[in-house]
Amino acid sequence: MQSTASLTISNLWIERGERDLCQGLSFSVQSGEIVRILGDNGAGKSSLLKTIAGVFSPLEGKISYVGEDVTFDRSLLQKDAIYLGHSVGVKSLLTVVENLRWYCPDVSLGVLHEVLELLEITNHVDVLVKNLSAGQARRVALARLWLSNKTLWLLDEPFASLDVRGVTLLEQRIQQHVLSGGLVVLTTHHDLLTLSSRDVVLLP
Ligand SMILES: Nc1ncnc2c1ncn2[C@@H]1O[C@H](COP(=O)(O)OP(=O)(O)OP(=O)(O)O)[C@@H](O)[C@H]1O
Fold it and tell me: DSSP secondary-structure letter at 95?
């Protein structure tokens, strides 16, 4: 993980279907900061995160990471970032432990079990993800996040399906991440309980 990093979005326009989204959006996020993307349903929050992650190219504008222009080649950013989307973000036909060994092959089994314990899913390590509840599956995706060692976290509705304890655990982990130099860009329709963020509002 990088000790200092920055992401800058300048004059970004995204086209999806027939719609222009973001409409000249600019913001930046530095190590130690959380930026929360707000907006109505359909405003373009997921499209923005996917564009930063490199799933789509913007119509116009510039994306810079650690001072480098990565608009047309997001590989530098991708090496350093993890994107968790709306969907569960783990493989439904693998068990909990198989998923984490697949996504985090360099992590020892000991560390992996510590994280599963922290996320309170140790009773389900050998269960296929498709047989877990939505909240339990989300916790497996969070275990992947916990273990990733990436600097930039791009999180689309990460609190979805989590119970109160799950929300607390995730907020604590995000706080720990930014305190150790990480950057977080997230979307959520929920209020953040303990985290302070800078908000960027997308207009419909
Ligand atoms: N697969 C797609 N193909 C074409 N257009 C799409 C597609 N997905 C989304 N869009 C368009 O992009 C717009 C923004 O969608 P997006 O999912 O980014 O919004 P959002 O702000 O994340 O919404 P929500 O709060 O409902 O999750 C939608 O209104 C839709 O018009």
Answer: B
* ipTM exceeding cut-off 0.90 for this assembly: yes
Per-residue pLDDT of the chain (204 residues; tens, 9 = 90+): 767 899 999 999 999 988 899 999 999 999 999 999 999 999 999 999 999 999 999 999 999 999 999 999 999 999 999 999 888 788 999 999 999 999 999 999 999 999 999 998 999 999 999 999 999 999 999 999 999 989 999 999 999 999 999 999 999 999 999 999 999 999 998 888 888 889 999 987
Q: Would you say the CB of residue 16 lies under 6 angstroms from ligand 1? A: yes
| 19 CA distance to ligand 1 middle (Å) | 9
For 110, 125, 173, the CA distances from 113, given in Å and listed in that order, are 5, 9, 17
Nearest CA to ligand 1 atom 30: 42
CB 91 within 8 A of CB 131: no
Domains of the chain, each with CATH number or no CATH: 6-201 (3.40.50.300)
> What whole-number distance in Å separates Cα of residue 187 and Cα of residue 37?
5
Q: How far is the CA of 110 from the centre of ligand 1 (A)?
A: 40
